[in-house]
Amino acid sequence: MDEETRLRVAVIIGSTRQGRAGGAVGEWFVAHARRRGDVDVDVLDLLDFDFPARLPHEPTSAMRRFSASVDRAEAFVVVTPEYNRSFPASLKQAIDYAYDEWQTKPVGFVSYGTRSLGTYAVEALRSVFTELHTVTMRDGVGIDLLSGEGQGSDAHHRAATAMLDELAWWGLALREARTRRPYVA
Fold first, then answer.
1. Which of 94, 159, 160, 184 has its CA 20 to 30 A from that of 60?
2. What are the angstrom distances between the C-alpha of 156 and each of 30, 81, 148?
Protein backbone atom coordinates (compact mmCIF):
# COMPACT_ATOMS: atom_id res chain seq x y z
CA MET A 1 0.00 0.00 0.00
CA ASP A 2 1.33 3.44 -0.78
CA GLU A 3 1.59 6.17 1.83
CA GLU A 4 -1.59 7.96 0.68
CA THR A 5 -3.80 4.90 1.07
CA ARG A 6 -2.41 3.69 4.40
CA LEU A 7 -4.49 4.55 7.44
CA ARG A 8 -3.03 7.19 9.78
CA VAL A 9 -3.29 5.67 13.26
CA ALA A 10 -2.45 7.60 16.43
CA VAL A 11 -1.47 5.41 19.38
CA ILE A 12 -2.23 7.34 22.56
CA ILE A 13 -0.32 6.25 25.65
CA GLY A 14 -2.63 7.39 28.40
CA SER A 15 -0.72 7.04 31.66
CA THR A 16 1.63 9.67 33.00
CA ARG A 17 2.24 7.94 36.33
CA GLN A 18 5.84 7.59 37.45
CA GLY A 19 6.94 3.95 37.07
CA ARG A 20 4.11 3.25 34.62
CA ALA A 21 3.92 0.11 32.52
CA GLY A 22 2.25 2.06 29.72
CA GLY A 23 5.49 3.01 28.00
CA ALA A 24 6.57 -0.62 27.56
CA VAL A 25 3.07 -1.78 26.61
CA GLY A 26 2.80 1.06 24.11
CA GLU A 27 6.22 0.30 22.58
CA TRP A 28 5.28 -3.36 22.14
CA PHE A 29 1.99 -2.46 20.45
CA VAL A 30 3.56 0.20 18.19
CA ALA A 31 6.23 -2.29 17.05
CA HIS A 32 3.48 -4.83 16.29
CA ALA A 33 1.40 -2.27 14.36
CA ARG A 34 4.35 -0.96 12.36
CA ARG A 35 4.93 -4.43 10.90
CA ARG A 36 1.72 -3.99 8.92
CA GLY A 37 1.73 -2.42 5.49
CA ASP A 38 -1.69 -0.77 5.77
CA VAL A 39 -1.11 1.69 8.64
CA ASP A 40 1.15 4.63 9.44
CA VAL A 41 1.60 4.92 13.20
CA ASP A 42 2.08 8.15 15.15
CA VAL A 43 2.70 7.91 18.91
CA LEU A 44 1.03 10.44 21.19
CA ASP A 45 2.55 9.73 24.60
CA LEU A 46 0.87 12.01 27.12
CA LEU A 47 4.22 12.32 28.91
CA ASP A 48 5.35 14.41 25.92
CA PHE A 49 2.62 17.02 26.42
CA ASP A 50 2.91 19.68 29.11
CA PHE A 51 -0.80 20.07 29.77
CA PRO A 52 -1.97 22.65 32.32
CA ALA A 53 -3.25 21.50 35.71
CA ARG A 54 -6.42 23.56 35.18
CA LEU A 55 -8.36 24.27 32.02
CA PRO A 56 -7.25 27.73 30.84
CA HIS A 57 -9.45 30.29 29.10
CA GLU A 58 -7.40 29.85 25.92
CA PRO A 59 -5.81 26.60 24.71
CA THR A 60 -2.10 26.25 25.37
CA SER A 61 0.37 25.23 22.66
CA ALA A 62 0.42 21.66 24.06
CA MET A 63 -3.38 21.50 23.91
CA ARG A 64 -3.37 22.80 20.31
CA ARG A 65 -0.60 20.36 19.30
CA PHE A 66 -2.52 17.40 20.77
CA SER A 67 -5.80 18.44 19.11
CA ALA A 68 -4.03 18.90 15.77
CA SER A 69 -2.57 15.39 16.07
CA VAL A 70 -6.04 14.00 16.81
CA ASP A 71 -7.39 15.87 13.79
CA ARG A 72 -4.68 14.44 11.47
CA ALA A 73 -5.27 10.87 12.60
CA GLU A 74 -7.87 8.69 10.93
CA ALA A 75 -7.99 6.08 13.69
CA PHE A 76 -6.80 5.66 17.26
CA VAL A 77 -5.52 3.01 19.61
CA VAL A 78 -5.65 4.01 23.26
CA VAL A 79 -3.16 2.30 25.56
CA THR A 80 -4.63 2.57 29.04
CA PRO A 81 -4.10 1.20 32.50
CA GLU A 82 -6.96 0.47 34.83
CA TYR A 83 -6.89 2.56 37.97
CA ASN A 84 -9.70 1.96 40.46
CA ARG A 85 -11.95 0.39 37.79
CA SER A 86 -11.50 3.27 35.37
CA PHE A 87 -8.90 5.03 33.26
CA PRO A 88 -6.45 7.75 34.36
CA ALA A 89 -7.40 11.40 34.74
CA SER A 90 -4.50 12.37 32.44
CA LEU A 91 -6.21 10.48 29.61
CA LYS A 92 -9.62 12.05 30.24
CA GLN A 93 -8.03 15.49 30.31
CA ALA A 94 -6.34 14.91 26.94
CA ILE A 95 -9.46 13.42 25.35
CA ASP A 96 -11.45 16.50 26.37
CA TYR A 97 -9.05 18.87 24.57
CA ALA A 98 -10.52 17.78 21.24
CA TYR A 99 -14.13 17.27 20.18
CA ASP A 100 -14.92 17.48 16.47
CA GLU A 101 -11.45 16.10 15.76
CA TRP A 102 -12.51 12.67 17.11
CA GLN A 103 -15.74 12.36 15.14
CA THR A 104 -16.34 9.55 12.66
CA LYS A 105 -13.08 7.78 13.42
CA PRO A 106 -12.53 4.32 14.92
CA VAL A 107 -10.93 3.69 18.31
CA GLY A 108 -9.30 0.49 19.54
CA PHE A 109 -7.98 -0.28 23.00
CA VAL A 110 -4.92 -1.91 24.53
CA SER A 111 -5.50 -2.14 28.26
CA TYR A 112 -3.48 -3.48 31.12
CA GLY A 113 -3.96 -4.07 34.80
CA THR A 114 -4.29 -6.91 37.22
CA ARG A 115 -6.86 -9.68 37.07
CA SER A 116 -9.40 -7.69 35.00
CA LEU A 117 -6.89 -6.94 32.19
CA GLY A 118 -8.02 -3.31 32.18
CA THR A 119 -11.55 -4.24 31.08
CA TYR A 120 -13.24 -1.69 33.37
CA ALA A 121 -11.07 1.12 31.98
CA VAL A 122 -12.05 0.17 28.43
CA GLU A 123 -15.75 0.01 29.27
CA ALA A 124 -15.57 3.48 30.83
CA LEU A 125 -13.71 4.78 27.77
CA ARG A 126 -16.31 3.31 25.40
CA SER A 127 -18.98 5.65 26.82
CA VAL A 128 -16.69 8.66 26.51
CA PHE A 129 -15.80 7.85 22.91
CA THR A 130 -19.43 7.13 22.01
CA GLU A 131 -20.26 10.66 23.14
CA LEU A 132 -17.51 11.91 20.79
CA HIS A 133 -19.17 10.15 17.82
CA THR A 134 -16.47 7.53 17.28
CA VAL A 135 -16.77 3.84 16.53
CA THR A 136 -15.11 1.64 19.15
CA MET A 137 -13.69 -1.73 18.18
CA ARG A 138 -15.28 -4.86 19.53
CA ASP A 139 -11.95 -6.64 19.97
CA GLY A 140 -9.03 -5.31 21.95
CA VAL A 141 -5.93 -6.37 23.81
CA GLY A 142 -6.00 -6.97 27.57
CA ILE A 143 -2.79 -7.58 29.49
CA ASP A 144 -2.54 -8.94 33.04
CA LEU A 145 0.58 -7.42 34.56
CA LEU A 146 0.69 -10.07 37.30
CA SER A 147 0.64 -13.09 34.98
CA GLY A 148 4.37 -12.91 34.26
CA GLU A 149 3.51 -13.37 30.59
CA GLY A 150 4.20 -9.78 29.56
CA GLN A 151 2.72 -8.29 26.44
CA GLY A 152 4.51 -10.43 23.88
CA SER A 153 2.56 -13.67 24.10
CA ASP A 154 1.02 -15.33 21.06
CA ALA A 155 -2.43 -14.55 22.45
CA HIS A 156 -1.57 -10.85 22.72
CA HIS A 157 -0.22 -10.79 19.16
CA ARG A 158 -3.38 -12.49 17.86
CA ALA A 159 -5.59 -10.04 19.78
CA ALA A 160 -3.61 -7.05 18.50
CA THR A 161 -3.84 -8.31 14.92
CA ALA A 162 -7.61 -8.88 15.18
CA MET A 163 -8.16 -5.41 16.63
CA LEU A 164 -5.95 -3.76 13.99
CA ASP A 165 -7.80 -5.65 11.23
CA GLU A 166 -11.09 -4.21 12.52
CA LEU A 167 -9.58 -0.75 12.99
CA ALA A 168 -8.21 -0.72 9.42
CA TRP A 169 -11.55 -1.81 7.97
CA TRP A 170 -13.51 0.80 9.90
CA GLY A 171 -10.88 3.47 9.33
CA LEU A 172 -10.94 3.06 5.55
CA ALA A 173 -14.74 2.79 5.45
CA LEU A 174 -15.14 5.96 7.52
CA ARG A 175 -12.50 7.78 5.46
CA GLU A 176 -14.54 7.06 2.36
CA ALA A 177 -17.79 8.10 4.08
CA ARG A 178 -16.27 11.42 5.24
CA THR A 179 -15.25 12.24 1.67
CA ARG A 180 -18.70 11.48 0.29
CA ARG A 181 -20.82 13.42 2.75
CA PRO A 182 -20.40 15.61 5.81
CA TYR A 183 -21.19 14.04 9.15
CA VAL A 184 -24.35 15.24 10.90
CA ALA A 185 -23.41 15.68 14.53
1. 184
2. 13, 16, 13
3-state secondary structure the chain: CCCCCCEEEEEEECCCCCCCCHHHHHHHHHHHHHCCCCEEEEEEEHHHCCCCCCCCCCCCHHHHHHHHHHHHCCEEEEEEECECCECCHHHHHHHHCCCHHHCCCEEEEEEEECCCCCHHHHHHHHHHHHHCCCEECCCCEEEECCCCCCCCCHHHHHHHHHHHHHHHHHHHHHHHHHHHCCCCC
pLDDT digits (tens, 9 = 90+) for 74-105: 999 999 999 999 999 999 999 999 999 999 99
